[in-house]
Amino acid sequence: MERELTRESLAGVHRMLYEIAKGNFAYQIKRTNHRDELEGLIALLNITVQKLNKNRNQFLWFKRYNEIVTIRTSSFLLSNDLKIIDYKWEGSALKKNTQSLDIRGNDFEMLLMSGYRRQWRKDIQKFIKGEPTFIKLLLRYEFYKHLEIKQPSVLTKVGGKNEIKFIVTSSYLDIQKDELFNVTENSRINKISIWNQQLFRNIEEYILDHIKEPPRKNYELARIFNTNEHKIKTGFKKVVGLTPAQYHKKHRIIQSKILIENTDYSLQDIAVKMGFKTYPKFSRYFKREVKMTPKGYRKRRKNPSI
Fold first, then answer.
1. pTM of the full structure
2. Is residue 196 domain-resident?
3. Is the dihedral of CA 173, 177, 181, 184 positive or negative?
4. Lowest CB count within 10 Å: 1, 9, 76, 232, which one?
């Protein structure tokens, strides 16, 4: 059953957009058991943020308190029964949710996503029985109601056998300023002016906004954005990594896959939603790019062993 679009059902999307606007890309919207277009939108937004987060990792070489990127950390001292003895954090994510209460004495796992807690118990039990004094984990925290945040973490054992304690240290990249968007993403575009980079980003947004329509030719994009075809032909690929046509095709397939995987819409309905006049045309297009039909892809995703 498709959900009604209300303030509550869209709360996670609103919160995610707020974090993106601040430059925080470590969050993911919590998934539900619904299989409707909103769930497809959530899946697409999560994938987009993962891409943004991956692209931003190139800035790790900046020094710790650089104006562009700051590494935020959260540290927890846990007793042998995994209750919080003490804690300290940097950044606002945890502080906003603990400033009115003291979490000391609480089970550490209560800070984690409910669906992840079983995996946490499994990992911690294996760690306690093993020889290593520390392990690396990707912990999934639930600091906000609708969002989860994945943080690379280190879990360390301290003390003797009778008085063992644990230290959890988690970190993530945080951006509070706009300077990031004025830094070139890679050396291929360091000779392209910031104005042309912004032009190509605007074209990229335009393509995504019109993904359900046939791709525009370079001369059409040039007319729309009041520039010349040669600039688009040579510059867009340097900035984005694909030609406009390739970019359109890639993201049309991505959105088609999301609808097939995350909704119960019929394949005919998905074909219409993605701008195809008939299902056979959609099926041929999809098979040419994915090497299987939409029906085969849905069947494979439901049963990976096939």
1. 0.51
2. yes
3. negative
4. 1
